Amino acid sequence: MPATTSGVMTTPISITDALLYSVIGMVVVFVCLFMIYLIVKIMSAVYLAVTAKKKAAAPAAEEKPAPSPAPAPNGRAGTYGELKLVDVDERTAAAIMAIVSDETQIPLNELRFKSIRRVEQ
Fold first, then answer.
1. What confidence tens digit (pLDDT) does each residue in 40-96 have?
2. Torsion of CA 51, 55, 57, 60, to 10 degrees
3. How far is 108 from 96, CA to CA, in rounded Å?
4. CA proximity to 112, closest of 75, 67, 72
5. CA torsion, ordered 75, 76, 81, 87, to nearest 10 deg
6. Residue 108: pLDDT band by 50, 70, 90 thresholds?
7. Which pLDDT score is estimated for 61?
């Protein structure tokens, strides 16, 4: 007679049945994961198609060309007048200007430095 636990009849299962149940469970999990993968792929394709249609429908005339840089006041391209160095050599001044350009993400020829001087602490 099978063993009972709290009124429910239980019977021991064989190793082959246990392995079969485990394989069936793993197959169900992987099938569900594959279905989720397909759903995400389909949603991605639909989203890309919709955004491509919106982009194509938007008139190209609305895009404004990038403004051209203002001409240099002294006529030389990329320079803006004189730079006054006070107690600073040219190499240090060049390093300072390069650091400022890099940190602000503004090209060096668009920055205007009037003077650079050493500040004593």
1. 999 999 999 998 888 877 655 455 556 655 555 555 555 666 788 888 888 988 899
2. 180
3. 11
4. 72
5. -170
6. confident
7. 47
34 or 12, which is more confident?
34
Q: What pLDDT is attached to residue 7? A: 66
Residue closest to 77 by CA, chosen among 51, 121, 104, 107:
107
Six token digits for residue 100: 């400022």
Kind plus residue range of the DSSP H or E element containing 5: strand 3-5
* Distance of alpha carbon 14 from alpha carbon 20, whole angstroms: 10
- CA dist list (Å): 25 to 18, 30, 32, 75, 83: 11, 9, 11, 78, 76
Domains of the chain, by residue range, sit at 14-60, 71-121
Written as one string, the DSSP assignment of 41-84 is HHHHHHHHHHHHHHHHHS-GGGPPPPPPPPPPTTS-TT--S--E
Q: What is the token pair recorded at 68?
A: 């051209």
Q: How far is residue 59's CA from residue 24's CA, in Å, rounded to a whole number? A: 55
